Amino acid sequence: MRTTLTALILGLLSLGFFLRDIGNPPRYVFDEFEYIPAANALLTHSPYTNPEAPPMGKLMIAAGIAFFGDNAFGWRIMSAVSGVFTLVGIFLWVLLLTGQHSVALIASLLTLLNNFLFVFSRTAMMDIYLVCFMVWALLAFTAALKLSGTRPTIRRALFLGSGVLFGFSSASKWNGVDTLGIAIAAAVFLLWFSARSSNPEISAYADRLRQAGVLWVVASLLIVPVLAYSITFLPVMHNLGHPFRFRELISMNVFIWHFRQVVVANRCMVTRWYQWPVQFQPLRNLSYLVGNWYVMWGGLAALLLCARRFGRCVPETLVIVLYAGNLLQWAITPQNGFFYYYYYFPAALFLGVAMALALRQLPERLFGVRLSILCALPAVVVFAYCFPRMANLPPPFDCTLGCWP
Fold first, then answer.
1. Longest CA–CA separation in the chain, Å
2. Burial of 34 per CB tally in 10 Å (0-12, 13-18, 19+)
3. Are 111 and 376 in contact (CB under 8 A)?
4. How many CB atoms lie within 10 A of CB 286?
5. 381: exposed, middle or buried (Cβ count in 10 Å: 0-12, 13-18, 19+)
6. Number of C-beta neighbours around residue 217 at 10 A
7. What SS3 state is found at 178?
8. Would you give the end-to-end CA distance of the chain in angstroms?
9. Tens of pLDDT along 26-52?
């Protein structure tokens, strides 16, 4: 009951927070001009205008427009809903991993204040859909491994749901496959290492994998994501007047691949992946987005603390692997341009979680005050400083706490 009530309160409060003046500005923000016309094309059966990206996020935008109209609110409402589900998903995932309500709550608070979640929950772009489906896929996968006393059919349903959600995440942006790869590697590792480990937790996870059925897990993590990903192209093919054929599906994805190889990036915005963790400058035309400096840099310090338990404690090990996997893959990805604002979001999402987990290794109180409260206060201050510009407040309110250069 406590968990349900907390998740409900988090969801309702964050929904009101994200929806406040979400129609401001009433014009396209940053890359919205690429995705909103494509979403409208799906609704009006017009020529499809954005074949260089998979369709899931545009289908979500189209749903918002269909229900709320072709206006700024309709464009962004589904982003706000996805932001809410992302936040609630983080809370439930950390609670499932640690069993500690306070740790899950501080993780969700730091996630809410990381700046990325707020900005992408209020813009009609693909990143929030990628992250939302990714978090819930992780939640389903973790639940299938963590929940004890669960019937095999429930466990199989969780693995199946995880595969579907991973497919939808990848159908929002291709880098959703990174976290899917981590989940597959984790399942393989648990099955292989359980016979060589004396850790009862690892043995229990491996037993639950076997209880669900190894072939079922393989199908859920290898075949189901591909099917879920493929199904999202059905409305696009229908819009083009093409039957749903395997050859057509392959052709569309080959085009996406080639486009990514030849597209000329805006060199003024390109940065190296290893610069992202210490990015300082905001992006003016994307609601002055920059990660909450305290959460971004404090999260890196927290990862070092979590590393002390790497391999011995599942939550700390998992958050390090998820952060590293979603960041380091850009070191080998064959692409012309890399943008902090798009590609760091999935990795940065785990920094607030890392800070919450690191608190478990520190004293509960400092000078009689809960350390978790002291930990969250700087995040609130930095977020408040960034808020007027991120929320696109009009002058003079945009400079309430000082104007940015």
1. 68
2. middle
3. no
4. 21
5. middle
6. 26
7. helix
8. 47
9. 999 998 999 999 999 999 888 888 888
| Amino acid letter, residue 38 | A
Q: Where are the beta strands (DSSP E) in 45-140?
A: none
314-328 and 72-98 helices, crossing angle to 10°: 140
Residue 143: the pLDDT is 96
Tokens of 224: 């189901």
Residue that is written with structure tokens 């996805």 in the block: 82
What count of residues does the chain have? Answer: 405
Nearest to 82 by CA among 138, 127, 114: 127
Q: Which residue has the tokens 């700024």?
A: 72
Say if pTM beats, i.e. exceeds, 0.70.
Answer: yes
Write out the two tokens for 256. 């996406």
pLDDT digits (tens, 9 = 90+) for 301-335: 999 999 999 988 889 999 999 999 999 998 888 77
Cβ atoms of 36 and 61 within 8 Å: the answer is yes
Q: In whole angstroms, give the CA distance from residue 28 to residue 36.
A: 9
Tell which residue, 90, 206, 104, has the closest CA to residue 138.
90
C-alpha R_g of the chain: 21
